[in-house]
Write a structure and sequence with these properties.
The complex is a heterodimer of chains A (500) and B (98). Chain A has a domain of 307 residues: Amidase signature (AS) enzymes, CATH 3.90.1300.10. Chain A is built from 17 helices and 11 strands. In chain A, helix 10 links the parallel strand 7 and strand 8. Chain A is globular. Chain B is mostly helical and 98 residues long. Chain B has a domain of 40 residues. Helix content of chain B is 33%, strand content 4%. In chain B, strands 1-2 form a two-stranded antiparallel ribbon. In chain B, a hairpin with a 2-residue loop joins strand 1 and strand 2. Classes of the chains: A alpha/beta (500), B mainly alpha (98). At the A-B interface, helix 11, helix 12, helix 13, helix 14 and helix 15 of A face helix 1 and helix 2 of B.
């Protein structure tokens, strides 16, 4: 039964638990056994909370035994990115500087998952402080892509995407600052959504670039992502950038996939040099599919998107250099060199040298440079202007362009080999070419599978982009595409992944 | 746009409280020079009359009511401290001898 339980969707698991066909404990044990069996190879998890997960599962079974109504995700296991604080459970953010830190409080997102009776299996691997596109920047070793363990699972949320693709969990949480939910989803054949900025609370989510960071749902199906989206989104008074408005009807949209009569824009800029042939081939097939399903497809010009990557790699490092100043070795985390003779300032510098990895150091220095006097206007100031221009390109497309959603490949290439770009920052940054504009403008986007690239047999992601607060459109279009592709393939794409 | 030198990287590292090793300075200086060369493209818009965007939401200050609420106990707040004494964070000396 274990093999069957781990292949179920979150919606199916919740239904079977609610009907009494299986218990939450059985479902949790099946996933813990799967983690035990495969995670030595995959390395998706940094910490597995076996006892906590089983206790949560037992609580769900007790609730049902008492005749209480269960929520739509009650008893469903989830893999939580190690960037969200979990009371009493280690939270490392993939960094040595927080090794062994046990947070004294839960992030709002963690609390919401618990309130929804979701079973948190453990914490997943990630690029240190969410800086990276491959999970190779984790201080705790790389994660393998379940499609080919010698390749990257994307990043920064590669642990979460790999856990889904390896059937270690049916649901996962990611965070997306420049593509860290969508790019891992694309390269592992799973679904990931970056909600509208401010939709999911950042309270207790370790900050990287505060004006861009956004938590969101990861799953194997569009409906499962919607169910998780609804569970974690909503206003939080503890996050001053949290949107105080109703969550868009994402679950209803996911249950009613339809693109008939919709106007869908292809972003002209996301094509050309650097794009893998097989990625473009699958993208073009997706365009044809959307037309067959009754959508009108038009080309849209977003000229400022050409400057998005450059603007992002000024804004994100600038904000990170400020945010990471809190890791000063005084109140929590690592402290190095405190032998009674050194000043606090020296201890801080020694600790940060020992506790941060290369990419974090590069970005802190880059941000310090961009914000320093003499360069501020030319770099940070110009990047902020680009941000305005990108927002205007989106507004024009969704406004006078009359487009309901935009589409593009999620990533220019499929998963690359572990090690290939590890010490080539500019090559690594290109993985986020298509995902970054959405973070800069603050609107919503999804990645879902659209096939395998013929040349390497690795998954390709289709990106759907919606205006801010219209997240439901992602799910309406995504569900229609998913249903049509699954019918064409005869099975979900992940069925084609080799067994681990 | 000017590039970045090894000496500038060393200065920035000091400002950012990073005690970099010599080999790291050599390594990062070249990489940061490449990155800055690439991101300097944003200066194409420097002369355009465009307002800057610092944040996707049009927010001003968000206030909450000034009410007493449950919070961490001193023990919880100090639970991750590298060193503590008398219910306080214990830190290395901040001021010099003179």
């Amino acid at each position: 039964m274990t093999a069957e339980l781990i292949k179920l969707t979150a919606a199916e698991i919740a239904a079977k638990i609610a009907s009494g066909e299986v218990t939450a404990v059985q479902v949790t044990e099946a996933h813990l056994a799967r983690i035990e069996a495969v995670d030595e190879k995959v390395n998706a998890f940094l910490h597995v909370d076996r006892e906590g997960a089983l206790a949560q599962a037992r609580a769900v079974d007790d609730k049902r035994a008492r005749g209480e109504k269960l929520g739509p995700l009650a008893g469903v296991p989830l893999a939580l990115k190690d960037i969200f604080t979990t009371k009493g459970i280690p939270t490392t953010v993939g960094s040595k500087i927080l090794e062994g830190w046990i947070p004294p409080y839960d992030a709002t997102l963690t609390q919401r998952l618990k309130a929804a009776d979701v079973v948190i299996l453990g914490k997943t691997n990630m690029d240190e402080f969410a800086m990276g596109s491959s999970t190779e920047n984790s201080a705790y070793g790389p994660t393998g892509n379940p499609w080919d363990l010698t390749k990257i699972p994307g990043g920064s949320g590669g642990g979460s995407s790999a856990a889904l693709a390896a059937y270690e969990a049916p649901l996962a949480i990611g965070t997306d600052t420049g593509g860290s939910i969508r790019q891992p989803a694309a390269v592992t054949g799973t679904v990931g959504v970056k909600p509208t900025y401010g939709a999911v609370s950042r309270y207790g989510m370790v900050a990287f670039s505060s004006s861009l960071d956004q938590g969101g749902p990861c799953a194997r199906t569009v409906l499962d992502a919607a169910l998780l989206h609804e569970a974690i989104a909503g206003h939080d008074p503890l996050d001053s950038t949290s949107i105080d408005a109703p969550v868009p009807p994402v679950v209803e949209a996911a249950r009613n996939g339809d693109v008939k009569g919709m106007r869908i824009g292809i972003v002209k800029q996301f094509r050309g040099e650097g794009y893998q042939a097989g990625v473009l081939q699958r993208f073009d097939e997706s365009v044809e599919l959307l037309k067959e399903l009754g959508a009108e497809v038009v080309e849209v010009d977003c000229p400022s998107f050409d400057l998005a990557l450059a603007a992002y790699y000024l804004i994100a490092p600038s904000e990170c250099s400020s945010n990471l100043a809190r890791f000063d070795a005084m109140r929590y985390g690592l402290r190095v060199g405190d032998d009674g003779t050194k000043s606090a300032e020296d201890v801080t510098a020694l600790t940060r040298e020992a506790g941060f990895g290369d990419e974090v150091k590069r970005r802190v220095i880059l941000g310090t440079y961009a914000l320093s006097s003499g360069y501020y206007d030319a770099y940070y100031g110009s990047a902020q202007k680009v941000r305005t221009l990108i927002t205007r390109d989106f507004e024009k497309a969704f406004g006078e362009g009359g487009v309901d959603v935009l589409i593009s490949p999620t990533t220019p290439t499929t998963a690359f080999p572990i090690g290939e770009r590890a010490d080539d920052p500019m090559a690594m940054y290109l993985a986020d070419l298509c995902t970054i504009p959405t973070n800069l403008a603050g609107n919503a986007a999804m990645s879902l599978p659209c096939g395998l690239a013929p040349e390497d047999g690795m998954p390709v992601g289709l990106q759907i982009i919606a205006p801010a607060m219209a997240d439901d459109r992602l799910y309406r279009v995504g569900a229609a595409v998913e249903a049509a592709f699954t019918a064409r393939w005869g099975h979900p794409l992940l069925e084609e992944a080799p067994s681990l | 746009m000017p590039g970045i030198t090894r000496e500038e990287v060393a200065h920035l590292a000091r400002l950012a409280r990073l005690e970099l090793k010599d080999e790291e300075l050599d390594h990062f200086a070249g990489q940061l020079d490449d990155i800055i060369g690439a991101v300097a493209r944003v200066s194409e818009v420097a002369d355009q009359d465009v307002p800057p965007t610092s944040h996707p939401l049009p927010l001003t200050n968000v206030m909450r009511a000034d009410e007493i609420r449950p919070s961490l106990t001193p023990q919880e707040a100090l639970s991750g401290a590298p060193a503590q004494e008398q219910q306080r964070f214990k830190v290395p000396q901040i001021l010099g001898e003179d």
